[in-house]
Design a protein that fits this description.
Elements: H1 2-10, E1 14-17, H2 24-31, E2 42-45, H3 52-62, H4 74-81
Parallel strand pairs: 1-2
Length: 83
């Protein structure tokens, strides 16, 4: 079963992480699955405020900041829904 999961993950162009690893190496390993053989990919990581230090460690080790996304506000949702 694990081999099957590995094969599926290699084909992904997007990887969503719901539990950010506490070490840089594990995070790098996970997001590395989004881009194989010269292809690019997207990794989306959900985290809560207590996990921010892990994110800062990852950003510092990579030398780049990650783009922060924010959810739509209630007003934005209403506007989109009414169209």
């Amino acid at each position: 079963m694990l081999l099957l999961v590995e094969l599926i993950l290699v084909m992904l162009h997007m990887f969503i992480i719901f539990d950010i690893p506490q070490d840089v190496e594990s995070y790098t390993h996970r997001i590395g699955r989004t881009g194989r053989a010269g292809k690019s990919g997207v990794a989306i990581t959900f985290l809560n405020p207590v996990e921010m230090p892990y994110l800062k460690d990852i950003e510092n080790s990579r030398g780049e900041r990650m783009k922060m996304l924010r959810p739509y506000s209630q007003d934005e949702v209403k506007k989109i829904s009414s169209q």
